[in-house]
Description:
- It comes from Alsobacter ponti.
- Belongs to the class-V pyridoxal-phosphate-dependent aminotransferase family. NifS/IscS subfamily.
- Pfam families: Aminotran_5.
- This is Cysteine desulfurase.
- Keywords: Iron, Iron-sulfur, Metal-binding, Pyridoxal phosphate, Transferase.
- The chain is an alpha/beta fold.
- Helix content is 38%, strand content 13%.
- The chain has helices at residues 19-29, 40-59, 73-80, 105-108, 131-143, 165-174, 246-261, 263-284, 311-320, 340-344, 349-352, 366-390; strands at residues 7-8, 67-70, 85-87, 96-100, 118-121, 148-151, 178-182, 200-204, 215-219, 223-225, 301-305, 323-324, 355-359.
- A seven-stranded mixed sheet has the order 2-9-8-7-6-4-5, sandwiched between helices.
- The longest helix is centred in the last third of the chain and has 25 residues, at 366-390.
- The two termini are 36 Å apart.
- Bound molecules: pyridoxal-5'-phosphate.
- Pyridoxal-5'-phosphate is lined by residues 72-74, 104, 106, 153, 157, 182, 184-185, 204, 206, 215.
- The site of pyridoxal-5'-phosphate has 13 residues, from helix 3.
Amino acid sequence: MNAASRTYLDHNATSALRPDARDAMLAALEHAGNASSVHAEGRAARALIERAREEVAALVGGQARNVVFTSGGTEANVLALTPGLEACGDKRPLDRLLTSAVEHPSVLDGARFPADRVERLPVDGDGVLDLDALSARLAVLAKAGERALVSVQAANNETGVLQPIAAIAGLVHDHGGLLHCDAVQAAGRTDFAMASGADLVTLSAHKIGGPQGVGALVLSPAVTIADRVLRGGGQERGARAGTENVAGIAGFGAAASCAREGRAEEAARLAALRDVFEAGLRAVAPDIDVFGARVGRLPNTTLFAMPEGTAETALIAFDLAGVAVSSGAACSSGKVRASHVLLAMGVPRERAAAAIRVSLGWTTTRNHIENCLEVFEKTVGALRNRRGRAA
Ligand SMILES: Cc1ncc(COP(=O)(O)O)c(C=O)c1O
């Protein structure tokens, strides 16, 4: 089966490369220059990077001069999560890192904070951060004279559930803290912007149709990072050493522009397809669990529990039938295990182990949705028959 005949519904793991991003990358690869060189070739490479910086900043309403390009969302998270952030010239190290229990592993690990200074806050049954728990913890820390960096994602990669970032930012700032927001899944898919109050925002090119291996940390004007991850040259205004990946950055910029330009129409198109898909699931299995369905979600994501069998058997059936979906986070695919996100939401381990994620993107058509539903119906039917025969 060739790639064209496959149904790719795993855009939260990685989205297909947009033609504009590919064109920008191919054009950039023709340039010989190092962006740090002062000659014409170097200046041409620099111009490509600076154009992309404008495009990426525009995606989240940030300022181009506050965009730091990285090797991806993971590196941007690790760069952001350090006690060595300075806000408004305050050089005192931050004392604690508070995260939600449903963050990406690169945040949950605490990055550059000592392990005993990292705390995880609970989410409710829908996967939304418990704001009372956050507020109470911030108040206790503030009373003890401690300042916190809080890291909460804008949208979850598995469920698509959105967090109330503006409300969280208000609480964090009221208590003298800083807010980092991992917007890898939300940027370009929702109207998420720096105006929500986040002080640092993580982005990744490959979730919006750019290349893998490129990302960015966008800072608010008041914030600087005192301790770098990569030390050496003075690239990225001293925030991240190393010769820039010019082609990757150019592809990121082009993808950011495409995602921003058609965002509202594309979100509506995908939400409509997602609704058709979920109605189709319910037609086969009326009691199906769609996780996070009661709260605001990304328009492109459905995480559901297979009504029969495990995620592992379902994944194989989908793949053999030409449909690429995922079981929870891609990072843990290949070895299917219950997702920490669903466990944090209080989903029983057995249900969590049956979770399948379908995530749509710019290449998704109605035909893809129908293919996926057809395989779902056949797979559930076969598993029901097998169970019936075994009984
Ligand atoms: C929410 C979230 N944060 C961070 C990352 C890491 O981004 P990257 O793959 O660019 O390192 C991912 C990727 O799956 C993600 O979904």
